[in-house]
Design brief:
The chain is α+β, with helices and mostly antiparallel strands. It is built from 3 helices and 2 strands.
Length: about 60
């Protein structure tokens, strides 16, 4: 399933793969939010080191 097709649905666990970005656009941020909030129990992200650094930096700024 894609994140867009999963909007409005939920699952016990969600795995989001192929996250590869150095900056997070507003569109990507919204899609990631939709994907991460579909889970009732657990979320796993599979991302590159650059994407991990970008997310960590954005979370630290919050």
């Amino acid at each position: 399933e894609t994140i867009h097709r999963f909007k409005g649905r939920s699952a016990a666990g969600v795995v989001i793969t192929e996250l590869d970005f150095e900056t997070l656009t507003e569109r990507e941020r919204r899609a990631l939010f939709v994907g991460m909030t579909r889970s009732n129990l657990a979320v796993e992200l599979v991302l590159t080191p650059a994407a991990e650094h970008c997310l960590a930096s954005q979370l630290a700024d919050q």
